[in-house]
Give the backbone structure.
Amino acid sequence: MMNVPFFDLGSFTRSHADDLHACLDEVLEGGYFVGGPLTERFEDEFSAFVGSKYCVGTANGLDSIRLILEAYGVGPGDEVIVPAFTFYATWLGVTQTGATPVPVEVMSTTANMDPAGLEKAITERTKAIVPVHLYGQAADLRSILAVARKHNLVVVEDAAQSHGAVSSAGMTGSAGDAAAFSFYPTKNLGALGDAGCVTTSDPNIAARIRSRRSYGQGAAKYDHVDTGWNSRMDPLQASFLSLHLRSLDDWTDKRRAIATSYRDALGEGKAASVVGPMDVQGSVWHHFVLKAANRNELQSYLSEHGVSSDAHYPYSVYQLAPMRALMNTLSLEQEFPVADTLAERVTSLPMGPWMSADQINHVAAVLKEMPDRLLAT
């Protein structure tokens, strides 16, 4: 029986070894090992891809969230609205500024922030909203931006899973005031280590982030004009990313083809359990996620049939003890049943350009024969 791993980055990367070694040679020949022309080249390429005026390379996606919020003056005493269900780093980026995360409910069909819950979460302390484009499907930025503009709030996109996705207000990374991207190796656009960036069309925000990512540096090396961090993208990762960016559209097409195969295998009935759009073009499918009636049972069935799986994510962040210690009283008194249900049920299938045709067909065959009772809508 075939066994399909959840990720197979090793073999996929080895298949591009010659091109990756050429990237290393490019860095060695250039002589810059932190920042420099290769990092600037990728920043220009990615800002053009996203449709923003500026891209600022950082060490990772978490730092990008924190740097954006700090650049907008968010800090202790302020509140930032976040989804109740997302990856932990979204909330960490808020708490690292000293601000208070305020959760709102998500939608069961997409796992993205529900704009209907925003108004009641806004107080005189609210400074920003951080929608997450989870699993590769963009949040409803048009509705979120409408609320934000009404209350003079900043919209910071957590675009870590949405490279190339299009929202109701435009390409993710260019529709909000600023966006945080991760280039962790498993992302749709991944480096061979940690890396991230900020995209924005605000020159002042871009300038402040460029300073704060490098010790608060000003016009010269020892001209410190601000406090800051050490959060810089190195040119080796930038070179890898420039290489991978050239393939991103093709990789997205393959992800959508895989999603189509999975949906067709599930059929109309079981496909109702998919967390994502009916039209596969509506997502870049960072993950392909099902809602299980019982996750342990579903994962056991998949494993018995040679399909690895994972859970993204087995928690509602607002329920985690470190965050409850930092939340305000009103948030602590609220419940978010959709977020909690997703946390209990979400199950991710293998998805990515490293998959062979045989692997895709095997997963699809397993889905086709899967008993309906294993899935929930």
In short: The domain at 9-245 is CATH 3.40.640.10 (Aspartate Aminotransferase; domain 2). The mean pLDDT is 97. The radius of gyration is 21 Å.
